[in-house]
Amino acid sequence: MSGSHAYADARAGLRHVFVRDLVLQASIGVYPIEHEGKQRIRLNLDLAVADEGAGRDVLSRVVDYEAVANKARALVASGHVKLVETLAERIADAVLADPRILCVRVRVEKLDVFADAESVGIEIERVRP
C-alpha cells in the first residue's frame, strides 16, 4: 500500500472505517496567542482495515470507530501541540497500534485561522511498517 488507494477493497481484503468531521477544541499552534486559549480543529480519519468477513454482530471482531475517535480526542486533550503535522502523526501512530489497521489517512484542519478560508491544515497517510 503506497500513495493514495482505495480503503475498501474486496479483492485486497480491506474494509474502510472512518470518522468524519470530528470538531474539537485544541491547544495548538506556534504563535504566542495560540498558547493563550483553545481553537477549533476538524479531524477526518480514514482507516484501511483487514477485512476478516462480517463482524458477526460482535464488536470485538471489528475496529470500533468510537475507540478510534476517543484516541483522537484524548490526544487532542493531552496538552499543547505546536504543529498540526505533529498532531496528525500522533493520531496516526495511535491508530496504527491496532494490528488490524493497515493504513490510516489523517486530516487535521484549523477552522478559524483566516476569515476568508473555511480551513487550513494537513493530511497525511501512514502505512503499517
Please give a handful of descriptors for the protein shown.
4-stranded antiparallel beta sheet, GTP Cyclohydrolase I, domain 2, 129 residues, 2 helices, single chain, alpha+beta, elongated
Commentary on this structure:
- With 129 residues, the chain is α+β, with helices and mostly antiparallel strands.
- It has a single domain (14-127), classed as GTP cyclohydrolase I, C-terminal domain/NADPH-dependent 7-cyano-7-deazaguanine reductase, N-terminal domain (GTP Cyclohydrolase I, domain 2, 2-Layer Sandwich).
- It is 19% helix and 33% strand.
- The chain is built from 2 helices and 4 strands.
- The protein has a 4-stranded antiparallel β-sheet, covered by helices on one side.
- Helix 1 packs antiparallel against helix 2 (84-95).
- It starts with 13 loop residues before the first strand and ends with a strand.
Q: What's the topology here?
A:
Layout: E1 14-26, E2 39-50, H1 65-77, H2 84-95, E3 101-110, E4 120-127
Antiparallel strand pairs: 1-2, 2-3, 3-4
Question: From the helix content, strand content and strand pairing, which structural class follows?
Answer: alpha+beta
Mean pLDDT, nearest integer? 91
Count of structural domains: 1
Architecture (CATH level 2) name: 2-Layer Sandwich
CATH class: Alpha Beta
> What's the Cα radius of gyration?
16 Å
Q: Count every beta strand, where a strand is a DSSP E run of 2 or more residues.
A: 4
Within the largest sheet, what's the order of strands?
Answer: 1-2-3-4
Helix fraction, binned, reads 10-25%
Low-confidence spans: pLDDT under 50, at least 5 residues?
Answer: none
CATH superfamily label:
GTP cyclohydrolase I, C-terminal domain/NADPH-dependent 7-cyano-7-deazaguanine reductase, N-terminal domain
Strand content is: 25-35%
